[in-house]
């Protein structure tokens, strides 16, 4: 396999995992995207220019997730390795349950796909397998790759995903606090076993959520109830727990985004409900946190990559 494009542009969305009851299975792409330009250069060096999220903390060498993913994808298809010059514009907040690490991995795989002569060798199914090898589970990688809402599962050790129908009227507003929460910490408080009644409850609500997303927004409040993870995480989620209770008391279909501490609201008329993009005045100070809102209407496209100047 040869590299046929030495300059590519990539865009990849933020994602929210779980969506309430669909623990480690359901996910959705959000209208907040990282963008990268990747150049293949005639050396084995790596040059990284980063602006936005993580500009002061992310590595500028081979340990960067985008670089690791490009290397893994090129090896996977038997393409030669190359030096890399990468310019990243990061808009997805880090450490807040919005799939930033999955986005980085998917961005690298998508860049490699755009660079090689036979991009079909890194189709969606292969991209999901490669991304899951990095992530450990496919629930964020799947919507980052496929876009929209997805259900992901593992069969015979291999990750699988299917796109779900999302009604045109469905909106999301993701509310992001200043605080971060490592995913490992959020997972550490989960019990190894849960009551059978809770498992059955979530199975039913997950099925209802798939139906509601397809165009029955009036069902979203009931469909986003959860008994498997959010209650157990309440004490480590800080201001997210307070905001979640506040929003659900208002009848809004609010859930913890992934492992938190961001809060995702799914529904319609969210701008009119005071959850439009920016700094919602009605939410400031709830849980002693300043909240930023990112508002999206309709289905969000998955990762895309294309050669530049072709």
UniProtKB/TrEMBL annotation:
List the GO biological process terms: threonine biosynthetic process
Positions contributing to ATP binding? 93-103
Any one GO MF annotation of this record: homoserine kinase activity
Q: Which reactions fall under this protein's catalytic activity?
A: L-homoserine + ATP = O-phospho-L-homoserine + ADP + H(+)
Name the enzyme group at the top EC level. Answer: transferase
Record family assignment: Belongs to the GHMP kinase family. Homoserine kinase subfamily.
> What name does UniProt use for this protein?
Homoserine kinase
What is the originating organism of this protein?
Answer: Demequina capsici
Per UniProt, what is the name of the gene that codes for the protein in this document? thrB
């Amino acid at each position: 396999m040869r590299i046929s494009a030495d300059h590519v542009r990539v865009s990849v969305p933020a994602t929210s995992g779980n969506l309430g009851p669909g623990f480690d299975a359901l996910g959705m792409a959000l209208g907040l995207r990282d963008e990268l330009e990747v150049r293949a250069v005639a050396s084995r060096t790596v040059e990284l220019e980063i602006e936005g999220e993580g500009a002061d903390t992310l590595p500028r060498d081979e340990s960067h997730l985008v670089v690791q993913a490009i290397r893994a994808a090129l090896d996977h298809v038997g393409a030669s390795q190359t030096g890399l010059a990468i310019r990243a514009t990061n808009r997805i907040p880090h450490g807040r349950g919005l799939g930033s690490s999955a986005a980085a991995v998917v961005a690298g795989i998508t860049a490699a796909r755009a660079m090689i002569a036979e991009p079909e060798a890194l189709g969606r199914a292969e991209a999901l397998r490669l991304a899951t090898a990095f992530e450990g589970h496919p629930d964020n990688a799947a919507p980052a790759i496929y876009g929209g809402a997805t259900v992901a599962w593992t069969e015979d050790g291999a990750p699988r995903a299917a796109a779900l129908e999302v009604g045109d009227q469905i909106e999301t507003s993701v509310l992001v606090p200043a605080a971060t929460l490592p995913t490992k910490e959020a997972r550490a408080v989960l019990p190894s076993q849960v009551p059978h009644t809770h498992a059955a409850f979530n199975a039913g609500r997950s099925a209802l959520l798939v139906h509601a997303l397809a165009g029955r927004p009036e069902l979203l409040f009931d469909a986003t109830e959860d008994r498997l993870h959010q209650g157990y995480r309440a004490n480590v989620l800080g201001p997210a727990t307070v905001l979640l209770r506040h929003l659900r008391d208002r009848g809004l279909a609010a859930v913890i985004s992934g492992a938190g501490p961001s809060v995702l609201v799914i529904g319609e008329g969210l701008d009119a409900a005071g959850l439009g993009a920016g700094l919602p005045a009605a939410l400031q100070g709830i849980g002693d946190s300043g909240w930023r809102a990112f508002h999206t209407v309709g289905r969000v496209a998955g990762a895309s990559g294309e050669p530049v100047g072709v």
